[in-house]
Design goal:
With 758 residues, the chain is of the alpha+beta class. Helix content is 32%, strand content 26%. It contains 18 helices and 31 strands. A hairpin with a 5-residue loop joins strand 14 and strand 15. Helix 5 runs antiparallel to helix 6, helix 10 runs antiparallel to helix 12 and helix 16 packs parallel to helix 18. The chain binds beta-D-glucopyranose. Beta-D-glucopyranose (BGC) binds next to loops. The site of beta-D-glucopyranose (BGC) has 12 residues, from loops.
Length: 758
């Protein structure tokens, strides 16, 4: 039943792998909370399941033992917690308990409605003794009441009248998932939650829990409203269970509405009082109204953000799914950001990486700038930790952002492919600049954004050094995690150069606007330092190989032996799970786009011929073991006019989670790739670039499509872009006329503009 708005799974597949993947695919989230989509009734013994509910930014601290206690090694990490389970509902028909694994499943569907904002599951089940019931469950995490997870559970007896029991549970004694054999999820089991109090007030269960080490508390509250009558929750340990029992009549629907709210001490002084307040607020709104509000929120979201594709329905719905996950995952307050797996699972432990700035934030910058600003606010909020981190790494000044974090401190245990990725600081500066270029919001730069860019520029100055008149950067890791601790990584050097450039530009712009003094005084920024930024920017060394006519990934990359990707057995991918890191480091083999990413982000640094040769070279040595890769290859292939490649890479990116092509969707969605899918259309096929010189478009149309459309917010105006077989039309939907460039030519967009497709 897939259509434009619905994603439906083959839910008759009951093997463990499919169940785990669907827990992720159909999770509900709203940027504050996320609930995996487990079967309400659970699974039989022996099935692996990740039954989790998460709060963005809510964490505990776990030890990270370092075998050798070298100076500055990270010894503690933050980990996002599974805080409580509120999704359990068990159904008994007489003495028989409903399970997908007993009796006969006569039909089963599971779907996500991206217009209405809920997931649903419908099952017709015949018990071993022949009683038939129809079950419909519907779930949503509200975008308008962020603490609310709502679960509606309906049961209709089809061929009997008799006793039906619903047992609804609220459990605060939960744990996180771990897998000691996979470096991408937590390796050890920790007891993170300590029960503090459990109480029932007016039929609502409140479970207050404290974290073992981070000193945070969370309160979850559950209220059940059932058509079978009143039920009194019973406390047992740190959980509450309520049973509804009645004679059900054939054909008559039984209806349970389960409200669950979350409150935490990061956002509230008194989570218990907050949970009471939230519960009172949400239960005062009729359920139909809650759904109407959800729909209205999403109508507005799709109106500004939708990417529409004509001519390939499967891809169109996959692209929509990816966009939906972005709005589900993004934090909407400065306490949170976007985790690498959103709020859909425990992979990467809820950490925020550069994925946000380079892969996801562009979508928000261009469609929902206030969300983009909030992402910068978060980075501003942890700037002091980035300063602290810079000192730990030996820098006397500036800020070095942690490679992975929740509350601001570094969580990366393996520094060669963690802390050494200094580029994250430049990436944060880059996205701050992008926010400014898209909005012209210089006030925000004066208040917060500028400080980030100045402090990261200071760090680069301290990190690099002059050698033979050129500014070089040693012992860093670029985006490609199969090549670590190198000198002059081309991407990193360009990224540092851009950061230094914008430190100078913001200094000038703020000075001109009379807005410089507060920030300059706060951080002691002097004209002399600005001169040093200028000098380092100009002298930045950008490696180039004359013989091959390409940019080497770093000083030593091209002199290593080449990994034979074609003859590596399929089961050896991803290579990181099968080869010692040092073995990988000795080869020319890339986990992901690195120099090719530089050719996208900093495209003006090289001519097209160099970019074309580079693309061809790196394509042969890249495994795309990271999900952050194919979207970038698609964009650069588009730029080079390699239409088939651009389309194939885009397809890989769009379908990655829905078809579990990386075989780890069970641990959560790949949010960066989802942002990458958006970029592969807007920046790739649409040829869009946001530069100091303005907004640039160079659209092309994939052969199998009839057309595509998207909208952008640019300098306060909304532009609709429609690409068709013969032409591209730009329409100013609101705001002042803006200057745009199409295929290199400048236009003023006042109402609408039609340009033939090149
Ligand atoms: C990638 C990194 C990425 C991280 C989190 C790794 O596999 O190599 O670039 O930041 O995953 O998504």
């Amino acid at each position: 039943m897939n259509n434009k708005w619905i994603w439906e799974a083959d839910s008759l597949k009951l093997d463990n792998e499919s169940l785990l993947v669907n827990e992720t695919i159909f999770h509900n989230a709203n940027g504050y909370i996320g609930v995996r989509s487990n079967f309400e009734e659970g699974y039989p013994q022996g099935y692996d399941t990740i039954r989790g509910s998460y709060i963005n930014g809510f964490y505990d601290i776990a030890q990270m033992k370092q075998a050798e206690k070298l100076c500055g090694m990270v010894e503690e990490k933050q980990t996002m917690l599974n805080v409580a389970d509120g999704q359990t509902v068990r159904l008994f028909v007489g003495d028989e308990e409903f399970s997908m694994f007993t009796g006969t499943v006569l039909s089963s569907r599971r779907w996500l409605d991206m217009q209405a904002g809920y997931t649903a599951r419908s099952v017709v089940w015949r018990s071993p003794l022949g009683k038939e019931v129809e079950i419909l469950s519907r779930r949503m995490t509200s975008f308008t009441h962020l603490p609310l997870f709502l679960l509606e559970y309906r049961v209709t007896p089809r061929n009997f009248t008799g006793e039906v029991r619903l047992v609804s549970r609220h459990n605060g004694a939960v744990e996180n998932y771990c897998n000691p054999n996979d470096p991408r999820v937590a390796g050890e089991r920790f007891q993170h939650l300590i029960p503090r109090s459990a109480e029932i007030v007016d039929g609502v269960s409140y479970l207050l829990t404290e974290t073992a080490s981070s000193g945070l508390t969370v309160c979850t509250a559950v209220k059940n409203v059932c058509s079978l009558g009143e039920g009194q929750p019973v406390l047992e340990g740190h959980s509450a269970t309520v049973t509804f029992r009645a004679e059900a009549r054939e054909g008559e629907e039984i209806h349970l509405t389960k409200y669950m709210v979350f409150a935490d001490s990061i956002r509230s002084q008194n989570p218990l009082a907050q949970a009471r307040q939230e519960m009172a607020a949400v239960t005062a709104v009729p359920v139909t109204k809650l759904y109407e509000e959800q729909r209205a929120y999403l109508d507005a979201f799709w109106d500004t953000s939708a990417l529409e594709i004509d001519g390939d329905d499967d891809l169109a719905v996959a692209v929509r799914y990816n966009q939906y996950q972005l709005i589900q995952s993004v934090g909407k307050d400065p306490h949170s950001n976007i985790a690498a797996k959103g709020l859909s699972g425990e992979g990467y432990e809820g950490h925020y990486f550069w994925d946000t700035e380079m892969y996801m934030q562009p979508f928000f910058t261009l469609t929902n700038p206030e969300i983009s600003r909030n992402l910068v606010e978060y980075r501003y909020a942890i700037l002091d930790y980035a300063r602290e981190n810079a000192r730990i790494l030996g820098h006397t000044k500036g800020a070095a952002y942690p490679w992975r974090t929740i509350m601001g401190r570094e969580c990366s245990g393996y520094y060669p492919s963690g802390s050494a990725q200094y580029h994250i600081s430049g990436d944060i500066a880059y996205s701050t600049v992008a926010y400014y270029l898209a909005t012209g919001d210089l006030d925000f730069i004066a208040r917060k954004g500028g400080e980030i860019v100045f402090e990261t520029a200071r760090m680069w100055l301290d990190l690099g050094n002059y050698h033979d008149g050129r500014f070089e950067i040693h012992e860093v890791t670029g985006p490609d995690e199969y090549t670590c601790l190198v000198s002059n990584n081309y991407f990193t050097n360009l990224n540092a150069q851009y950061n230094l450039h914008w430190a100078v530009r913001f200094y000038e712009l703020l000075k001109e606007a009379g807005k410089l003094s507060p920030v300059a005084e706060k951080i002691g920024l002097q004209e002399e330092e600005i001169q040093q930024f200028r000098q380092a920017e100009k002298a930045m060394y950008l490696p180039y190989d004359e013989k091959l006519g390409i940019n080497p990934q770093d000083d030593s990359f091209l002199s290593k032996k080449v990994w034979d990707i074609a003859n590596t057995p399929k089961e050896k991918f991803p290579l990181l799970l099968h080869y010692h890191p040092m073995y990988l480091y000795r080869f020319q083999v890339c986990k992901q786009a690195d120099t090719v990413l530089a050719h996208f982000i900093f495209e003006d640094a090289q001519d097209m011929d160099t970019i074309a040769r580079s693309f061809a070279y790196y394509e042969k040595v890249t495994t795309h073991d990271s999900s952050l890769s194919t979207c970038i290859y698609s964009i650069v292939a588009s730029k080079l006019g390699l239409k088939d490649k651009a389309y194939a890479y885009f397809g890989d990116s769009a379908k990655l989670d829905l078809f579990n092509t990386h075989h780890n969707t069970k641990d959560g969605i790949h949010t960066a790739n989802m942002g990458g899918t958006y970029m592969a259309i807007v920046y790739g096929f649409g040829g869009f670039r946001l530069k100091e010189s303005g907004a640039w478009f160079a659209p092309s149309l994939p052969e199998s499509w009839e057309g595509y459309r998207f909208k952008l917010q640019y300098l306060g105006s909304r532009i609709r872009v429609e690409v068709k077989a013969q032409s591209v039309t730009f329409t100013l939907e609101n705001g002042n006329p803006v200057t745009i460039h199409v295929y290199g030519k400048e236009y003023t967009l006042a109402q609408s503009l039609r340009v033939p497709l090149a």
